[in-house]
Design a protein that fits this description.
By secondary structure, the protein is α+β, with helices and mostly antiparallel strands. Helix content is 37%, strand content 24%. The strands form four sheets. The chain has a six-stranded mixed beta sheet, with helices on one face. The protein has a four-stranded antiparallel beta sheet with strand order 2-5-10-11, with helices on both faces. Bound molecules: (3R)-3-hydroxy-3-methyl-5-(phosphonooxy)pentanoic acid.
Length: 316
Amino acid sequence: MRVTARAHPNIALVKYWGKRDSELNLPAVGSISITLGDLWTDMRLDTDAGADALTVNGEQRDDLMPRIARCLDVVLGEDRKPVSIVSESNFPVAAGLASSASAFAAAVVAAAAVSGREHGKDELANLAGRASGSAARSLYDGFVELENAGDRVAVRSIRDTDSWPLSVVVAITSVAPKSVGSGEAMEISRRTSPFYARWVDEQEDDLARARDAIAERDFMKLADTAEHNCLKMHSVMWSSRPPMVYWNAATLDCMRVVRELRAGGVSVFFTIDAGPQVKAVCMPEEVDRVREALGKVEGVENIMTSGLGAGAHLIE
Ligand code: PMV
């Protein structure tokens, strides 16, 4: 049997950083994200295989197989048949572009199809979240909120793709794999950052403000909330022991350029995850100006643009 699922990465505007249960991989805080329609990961699962095997963008990547295998075990059971997996993405993997979110969201959708059992979207989101907390959000389209609900997460789309079609311009400043993976880095922050408890305490306020801004389509309120939340998360990373600094000089320059554009009346704000790329969220009519300004920053290697998009789904 052979199936292919497509999932899009998502970018958090109110971030998840820290786990309340590392066994079940449950986040310490809720989060709000946007799903990016023009970036994708297609994952093909073939059950006619002698042994588990994984190819990512044309390269055999047995090193990445254990994590994907654990995710498949959760959906299909540990006594599942071996599978061969072919994963193709149209953006760099493991560089702070949420490639794990799209990969695990696609993996659970494909595995569920192979299982032959009906799975609700809520169940699939929880299964994806076991592998990567942010992957749970890639099951849903447009603006997505993830809340904690006992020993599960509850995820839903809070605004669709078309009713507020924001764009995202991603400035790629380095495609080198990150120094510390987000799972391990979050645990270091929880254990060592003096700001961690305060970060968790304040998250509800940021979520409420972002939820209101999205309901009201208030761009400036969303800009202010998202940049504040992003910088607070990075303050937790910087104040951890050892410190985790994912930025480079171009990251800082891009942030300045985004701020200058906004001061000049352009509707744009930045957000940055566990990597050096800067994601500039803007109104669609501002894409060209934002691309042009970020393209001039020294150290920006590539620029990608995306609109909002759909949750993970089967394509074959
Ligand atoms: O889901 P993970 O383990 O890749 O962690 C994601 C963490 C951030 O991207 C930094 C924030 C977020 O909410 O996506």
